[in-house]
Amino acid sequence: MSLQGSGPNLHKLLLSEDPDDVLDKRSQDQIIASLWSSQQHHDSSAYFQYFKAECDAWRLSGSAVAIQTYRDFLDLTEHLKRTRNQKRSSSAVLDFFPPLQPTDEKTSPCAEESNLEQLHLTLRDRFPFCDPASATNSIFLAVRLWLMLNVGSSAILTLFPGRSSLGWTEDQSLDSFIDTCFPVSELGPTLSQWPFSLNVYNLQRIGGFDIVWTDHLADHLYLNEDIGTISVYHHVQVLRGLLPNKSPDQALPDGLIVETLQTLALLIPRANRDCTKWFQRIHVKNAKDIDQGAGDVELWHWARSPEKYKFWGQRLITIKLAYETSEPKNLGQWWHDRRSKVQWYTFWVAILVLILTIVFGLIQSITGVMQVYYAAHP
Question: How many CB atoms lie within 10 A of CB 221?
């Protein structure tokens, strides 16, 4: 699906730092309609904040790409949808680009700036040949912007340390790569249901974990025990946009999308007042960066059954076990930690006894001092 008839703004430069090349609302709507195959009427500002940050990071990394405009990106995305079962190095995938010819990325024709008239041409009509590295980088960038998967140039990892890096070999198709990123596992029906206490508010307040909002789907629910963080993917509008698309060229499995939405409903239940207030405070501070829809996902009737989670079940179990075995580190956490009523009462009775012992000890000491004083000064 080529966007030849699309508006002129889509012919603007994708990796430009010129303010004139920033997307307007109409162009954003065209991109949403193309990527998600459905016209969204929700606030997508968080996604386009990510979109801009990724483009800026790629430009700063210095890794050359063959695609130049927003239309190039959308056309490549459509091409990848059609060829998602073909190897990345196959002619079917690489046919989108001009003939590949090994050369220095900086001297490749694709690295040169085109005039405005040339930008309206297809990529194959615009350049006589293309450097293989520029073509590969273009595929990686397109997948990052389209599916929000952290794949691509190692220079990007330098700009964003701490993110997991996904490896997509040239012998893998897009489908195979996605299967590798999201392996399926069976948990079995013997596990008890996810407890109501397993939510972001308690994970932070009682468990002592920091919630880190991530833009990369493969990092969702990743627990870093070394620094005590839990990553949460929050782009609900992207997930909801992908979900209705039942066409054969849809890349992400429907089950993955549904599960991701339900994990958000599980961890940020909108019926829980504490969680709702917690999320509202977080969103107010980061309104442009966090999708507001993350705190407003309906919890389905099966969502507390562990065996229903084929993609995220193992990570949920890891978080649950880490939460259940976490020990309070300060008085505030001890006060709120009611997971073991006996332990809670025992601890606070001991604290009360300690306080009373200190108080009565002080009183006795003061009384003794006063007695000595009045005995010496009748």
Answer: 22
The single-letter DSSP state of residue 323 is: H
Q: Which residues contact 262 (CB under 8 A, 6 or more apart)?
A: 297, 299, 300, 303, 308, 309
End-to-end alpha-carbon separation of the chain, Å?
A: 104
Residue 370 Cα distances to 45, 201, 356, 364, 378, angstroms: 70, 51, 21, 10, 12
Backbone angles phi, psi at 224, to 5 degrees: -100, 100
Q: Rounded distance, CA 148 to CA 138, Å?
A: 14
* Cα 247 to Cα 25, 29, 57, 81, 132, distances in angstroms: 26, 20, 32, 10, 30
- Least Cα distance to 15 among 77, 75, 63, 78 occurs for 63
Region of residue 152 (left: phi > 0; alpha: psi -120 to 50; beta: else): left
C-alpha distances (whole Å) from 53 to each of 24, 48, 143, 182 are: 16, 8, 15, 25
Q: Residue 273 is which amino acid?
A: R
Report residue 4 as tokens: 């030849």
- Where does 111-253 have alpha helices with state H? 123-126, 132-147, 154-159, 174-181, 200-205, 236-242
Q: What is the pTM of this model?
A: 0.82
* Secondary structure of residue 223 in the 3-state scheme: strand
pLDDT tens profile 128-166: 888 999 999 999 999 999 999 999 866 665 555 556 788
Residue 19 pLDDT: 78
Bridge partners for 223 per DSSP: 230
